[in-house]
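Fresh eyes needed here. Have a critical look at this protein's tokenised backbone.
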Amino acid sequence: MRSLPKRTHRIPTQARAEQREKFTLVSQFLAPIGSILKRYFGESQGFKSRRNLAISYHIREAVAGASPDFTMDYQKVIIAEGELLGPENPSAAPQATAAIKLDWEDNSGQGLAKSDDMLMVVTYNTTRNLFDTREGTKKRSQATYLLELPGTWLGDTVECWIAFVAADGKDNSSSMGEMVLV
């Protein structure tokens, strides 16, 4: 059994203060999708949970800027990480309503990809700081999905990530992202 760490009154070094800022930014960004990360971000490694792995990755790779103005680099954000083959040639096109038309090529039969793999979609409204998640929406073989978002999101900038999850839920692909103006 370990005791709780003692509080220190020392002023943190510049590097430690910056690391804390990055940790806070990433933790707050990923908190709303913690359940997605727990299921789909890589494989747990010893004492490191999938959520911890996600936070570690994003602190190292997806934080941009300089202190105190750190921001998330959405192009480097990964929502899911896995061995299953991801979507081939994905595209996201805004529609007249608050919707995004997602298309991909059916690559069933390549690697471990199967026609009944289910689509997972995570969207993040950068204007409103809100996430929207959809799981089990369409099969890989259907190659298209109309993602209807809340009407209040019309005119907002939305980051969109898609991945596939095996029908039995035991495997998933890595996510792919794109920015869309809804």
Residues 88-181 form a domain with the Immunoglobulin-like fold (CATH 2.60.40.10).
